[in-house]
Amino acid sequence: xxxxxxxxxxxxxxxxxxxxxxxxxxxxxxxxxxxxxxxxxxxxxxxxxxxxxxxxxxxxxxxxxxxxxxxxxxxxxxxxxxxxxxxxxxxxxxxxxxxxxxxxxxxxxxxxxxxxxxxxxxxxxxxxxxxxxxxxxxxxxxxxxxxxxxxxxxxxxxxxxxxxxxxxxxxxxxxxxxxxxxxxxxxxxxxxxxxxxxxxxxxxxxxxxxxxxxxxxx
Length: 218
Known about the structure:
This protein is mainly alpha-helical. It is 72% helix and 5% strand.
């Protein structure tokens, strides 16, 4: 591997490390930090981290503040509203396209995962469910995004998913919301199983409305 390739590899690895830090909540919404602090957190050279920051800034995940450092995207009401609305529109289109193309394989496994998570949340009084629940929650959204069949739409969806991850980490995924979210997702899955694209779109809109209410920005 030559020097140019090594630099590019480090930049790619630093970017993935940054994505992981944002998704996991290691970097939280509204957080200020210096470039040197970010280098320490990501454990990559300054040049590689700067490239990762550029990419994140272009997607609205970070703000670079001259002479002040870096700020993680804030989970403001208008940001929450815009990100969830963006996801809803693409989820609805992904659902319609999957129904139109008959690309519905995998729904049974999705339904089983959601039913199991709903039952676990109904029975649990602990705090061990949120990470698992977020993973199950995202599995349906990923399925819908996969129905778009358009690389540019999927890239935009992926960037928005990162914004939503930052938003999700701003507030605990409480047991009562896990149960209702799983039920809303099951309504989407059931419509897809019927081959009802419009019904799925309606269920997705209801899920978005309920999520906005949960965040207090409806």
